[in-house]
Batch of 2 targets.
Target 1
Amino acid sequence: MAGNPMNIFDISGRAMSAQLVRLNATASNMANAGNVTGSEAAAYRAIRPVFQSVTDQPGVSTVKVQQVLTTDAKPVKRHDPQHPLADKDGNVWEAAVDSSAEMIDMLEASRMYQNNVQVLQTAKSLMLDTVRMGK
Amino acid sequence: MGLEDSLFGVHGKALELRSQRLSLLASNIANASTPGYKARDIDFESALRDATDKGESVNNAMNGSMGYRVPLQPSLDGNTVELSTEQTLFAENAVKYSTTLSFLESRLNTITRALRGE
């Protein structure tokens, strides 16, 4: 944090960015759910961000996205010889995305985002009240 | 005892502590979905006592009375943030911050009036 102590705006702001990364990951997973490819290697696998807390002083910490992992879920093999992408055995692979889990993740991420916005709003109005003190 | 202590009494230190606790609770809310994060909080009463009676600095008073939250229902990923608890305490802390602020404000008004001699 470039020498400056972390303040409440850093804490909530960076947490919002982290939740936004999570929301983006969920969106690309959802967009690719049900996608079909002709080989197992090419099939889409769900991606998921890994959160890590960043501590400034004891107790004051925010969160960052350490990395975005590709999950090792197995794409679903489906026998569908009519499919234009089917391989020589007539198999296609469906993207390894659990869409109900993604929906839940999306809901949670958006709730967490809202919580941080609320924190930011409260902190902002308190800071403004403090600035106006005595006027 | 510094000038600000004799002017504002307990409220100056209280406002500083409230503001630090606001950051602490905001950190808990920010890390609500970080695996392994342990929620922390301070015992406000003892921190305020350390800062006023014992004359410790606000940072020392904060660190001295900080502890980890005991979760009602521990989650599997090791995170001990319970949003309902944190949000309630955050709201409570925000209201008390405003209260301290209005105490300070009326104190300021009193002093200003005394200085003007109206």
Target 2
Amino acid sequence: MSPSIPIPPPPSPKQMVLATEDWVEYRTGFPTLVRKFLFRKVPPTGWFHTLGSSLLTVFILQATTGALLAMTYDPSPNGAYESIRYITDQQTLGWLIRGMHKWGASMMVILLFLHMGRTFFYGAYKYPREMTWLTGSLIFISVMGMGLTGYLLVWDQRAYWASVVAVNINGTAPVLGPFISKFLLGGPVFGAQTISRFYALHMLLIPGAIGALIFVHMWLVVKLGVTPWPARPVPPDAPEPEYEPHSQTLIEEPLRVGQPATAEREREVQEVGD
Amino acid sequence: MADTPAGSHAHAYTAPQAPDSAVTRGQFLTLSSVGLGAMIGAVIGVPATAYLLAPVTKEVTFEPVSLGPVSRFTGETSFKPTAATYVEDPKNPNTSAGLAWVHYTGKQNPDWLASDAMFVVFSNRCMHLGCPVMASSVGFGCPCHGGQYDTRGVRIAGPPIRPLDRFQWKIANKELIITNRWSVDFVNGKLTYYPVKMPGQPVDINGDTTAANILYPDVSYTHGPVPKPQ
């Protein structure tokens, strides 16, 4: 190495963090994506706007505790109740994990109704957010399906008879009813196939659908922005408003990824370096 | 390349032009990809759907099962039916355990369809939504939503939409054996049997079965000819 070339000073910790971020940014674009997602313009909000993220938190809680419970649970007529007893009475912190899953389930339904009520009373289902409302409705139906299928898995008398009643309620729908109840039961009568069917629906199919729907739902929330408080009264003789899909509550510039080295950040790095 | 004159370049080559009406190479490949994708989707999706929906077309056949010795049920004087448990499917004892209420009429005819038949064997499945009914001195009552039935199993109060199901029975080797399950209704006061339907589903509408069978087809049990009481 020629002695005429100066050896650069070692990078500062901040430079190292920024360089690491840039390394990921150039290859994935994720840091920009996360910044766009977290630091976006919102109108004045209140506690009512926290219900959606509360629901997401409870969903993550349910998914985590559910995966843990599935490691011990035995979805068979002879083993289900005993495995639940084992989880509750003997497994380390099993009572806590099962308790969180049980209370989280009720919490999710309560929060869902509150969230839906907030959306309704804010008029947040209107243009341009109709698709957000529709995907939310599908999530609502899926969560009801989780409640129905999860209730049976405890496999005590209450779980059994509540599920019998629920299946027979479905059976009272005209024309399709008898087929729907057989579809739910996995056959003409309540049997071993019913509990494994509900188990598969409860921990694979429906949660997968909810996860995908949450992704679409949140994509729309970020794209369209948070609904402002509908406070401004519209005079009766006001002209028909001209809507612009990209008003100021929306993301002002399209997502642009893979371009980390903005002039501002480069200056920042240089200043730190100097 | 052997035919290419020295000094000429690739860009001198002019591709033959397809006629305007023909499908271009790009369009062809797009259509092929879409078609192939649809085929792959069908190969996965059709069996998956059939697998998922298979139970919808499946029916079970009721297998005869003994309720115990006849002498167990003949002690009844006033209306006080005897509970008898049975297992419908021995492979699934936990989920197919059932309970029948055996009512001894005090008569001695072992023909189950006779008007002076020895027993009436009721299903304990409430015809509201399928909860288990309990026998009482006036008939039967359901704990779930308060449905009440008289001693014939006919609804007297609450939400059930038809009388309790009944079991076809016979006596063999001094044992009471249930051989089939039937839904029933009283049409103009006359006991009528129907193929089994699930709770909450009507077997007839004012005695007419056509509309009831279109709206609620019986799809649970395979069955032979419907019995006619004498």
